[in-house]
Amino acid sequence: MSVYYTKDHEWIRVSQNIGVVGISSHAATQLGDVVYVELPELGKKLIKGEELAVVESVKAASEVYSPVAGEVLSVNETLEDQPQTVNESPDDGGWFVKISISDMNDLESLMSQDEYSAYCIGS
Amino acid sequence: MPDNDLLKTKLYDIHLSNNAVMVPFAGYNMPLHYDLGILKEHLHTRSKAGLFDVSHMGQCFLYSDDLSFLSVAKALETLIPAEISNLEPGKQKYSQLLNSDGGIIDDLMIGRLGFEGQEHKLYLVVNAGKKLEDFEYIKKNLPEGVNIDIADDSLSLISLQGPEASEILTGLNSSIADLLFMSSVDVPLTPNIWGHVSRSGYTGEDGFEISVKNSDVRSLVNILLQNEDVEMIGLGARDSLRLEAGLCLYGQDIDENISPIEAGLIWSIQKSRRLPNMQYKGVKRIIADIQNVNSKRLVGIRPEGKVPARAGTEIQDAEGNQIGLVTSGGYSPTLGCPIAMGYVNGKFKKVGTPINLVIRNKSMPASVVKVPFVSTKYYRG
Fold first, then answer.
1. Do the beta carbons of residue B286 and residue B295 sit within 8 Å?
2. Selection from B267, B240, B300, B279 nearest residue B96 by Cα
3. How far apart are CA A50 and CA A40, in angstroms?
4. Within 13 Å and on the Cβ side, how many CA atoms surround B169?
5. Beta carbons of B218 and B37 less than 8 angstroms apart
6. For residues B67 and B63, what is the distance between their CA atoms, to the nearest angstrom?
7. Which of A36, B66, B291, B349 has its CA 20 to 30 A from that of B231?
């Protein structure tokens, strides 16, 4: 199982052709207290970089983009009643969606954990 | 970020040492939030006491060469819709600086000083983003013999808000306990620090705004922070607190094209000032907007679901016709649901009117509700 990161601070944890997507703890901290998450419908076909979800904090709404092309297999229903899970556990319980990845080559342009850490320090 | 060009308040170092996330606001480098974050800072202010640096706001005094209060009051009354000449020493009013078309140049607090020898003076607090324009506008329109003394370079302003605020400040000077909402006193807060303390604020809570000399503000803040119930609160929570209290934010809910009547501020215009023989700037618009029931009105909005409606969200009637726009919107930490304010055609202003909000191309049901969203706790004795 490998984790990849985008420049927009999403992560995707990949096992075979299934990816679980969330936002990094860096992003969760920047957003502040999450009060609502709008998740996509099951079966939605996504293209890489397309809006996947919307995260609303007290202050503002922010888009979450899909790191890869694929189809939405399931969404994290916990976020409906407990959106603060995104802040409390961004890397784990605060995941957004599970996607079947249609093109594994999409992963090549993403960052490894080390690359992402360096990217956050640099930005 | 070109932080170098931004101004700093005298509390800048205290913000940094409290781990503030700083953002540019009205030309100043200001704290958006501290370690607690917006949500907890908001709830802390509602349950205990929040301390705000509002030193970026503009402070000035108006006085007349003949030391007559009436001369000053009459001069200011030509620029605002509120009656000032009947203001008692140590009392204050909320009003708006108007342009000739009745649009709001800025909203402001106007206080009459209450201590002996200074009772002829008015003390004004205006918004940071408009202060230079305001000061220029006031100066230009003052008659010969009435002067403006801009105190921006010498005075800081802090605000202590919340249910514990009174007890905390009373510990510094017991005379503060009896102060009523929209009243002020000038008192020593330590043997060396005098403050102009008014019982007012921008949160809907009981609370105080304290103007002190620049050289005293850090000491005073450090004294207040020694109390474990006091937390520093940033601009983020300041915004969500004022929205729950149904208070307008200049530049968002009100601006130069909007009249105080449209903004629902008629309560700040005394009946005697709504008469056609009045002479102040924009009075024609005030009277016309009172009479025109179809002119737009600022209303409270409660979206039915959980999705916050942000500023700019289109408001529609039940048939899908656009009837207005949201001007302030977000999440209410106190109520745990989204709340908003926006302008609708006057026909739709009644509490209970069903409306729709267009959020990300989806129509979401909502209704017009009364403001404040969270009941205010002003101390009226």
1. no
2. B267
3. 11
4. 32
5. no
6. 7
7. A36
With CB atoms and an 8 Å threshold, state whether B310 touches A61: yes
| Residues 120-179 (B) with a CB less than 8 A from some CB of A | none
Q: Which domains does chain A have, with CATH numbers?
A: 2-122 (2.40.50.100)
Give just the sign of the alpha carbon dihedral A9, A15, A18, A20. negative
* Yes or no, beta carbons of A58 and B360 under 8 Å apart: no
Question: Taking a C-beta distance cutoff of 8 angstroms, is the pair B81, B273 a contact?
Answer: yes
Determine contact, residues A72/A78, Cβ cutoff 8 Å. no
Residue among B38, B306, B360 minimizing CB distance to A58: B38
Contact B40, B48 (CB under 8 A): no
Q: Which two tokens stand for residue B28?
A: 């100043």
Q: Which of B183, B178, B130, B182 has its CA nearest to residue B152?
A: B130
Task: Specify the residue for token string 């940094």.
Answer: B16
Q: What is the mean pLDDT of residues B10-23?
A: 97
Tokens matching residue B353:
């009117």
Q: At what angle do helices B38-47 and B235-244 cross, to 10 degrees?
A: 60
Sequence-ordered strand ranges (E) for B274-321: 297-303, 314-316
Interface contact B38-A54, CB threshold 8 A: no
Tokens of B208: 């105080």
Q: Give me the residues of B, 230-269, that contact A with CB < 8 A.
A: 236-237, 239-240
User: What six digits make up the tokens of B5?
Assistant: 């060009």
Model pLDDT for residues B237-289, shown as the tens digit of each residue: 999 999 999 999 999 999 999 999 999 999 999 999 999 899 999 999 999 99
Q: Which domains does chain B have, with CATH numbers?
A: 1-291 (3.30.1360.120), 293-369 (2.40.30.110)
Instruction: Assess contact for B34 and B20: CB atoms under 8 A.
Output: yes
pLDDT tens for B363-373 read 999 999 999 99
Backbone angles phi, psi at B2, to 5 degrees: -80, 65
Tell me which long-range contacts B134-142 makes (C-beta under 8 A, separation of at least 24): B134/B58, B134/B97, B134/B105, B134/B106, B134/B108, B135/B58, B135/B60, B137/B79, B137/B97, B137/B105, B138/B60, B138/B62, B138/B76, B138/B79, B138/B97, B141/B75, B141/B78, B141/B79, B142/B62, B142/B75
Structure tokens at B293: 């029931």
- Nearest by CB to A36, which of B37, B239, B308? B308
* Contact yes or no for B199/B207 (Cβ under 8 A): yes
Give Cα separations from B38 to B135, B232, B346 (angstroms): 32, 11, 34
Instruction: Look up tokens 């009436």; give the residue.
Output: B70
Q: What is the ipTM of this complex?
A: 0.88
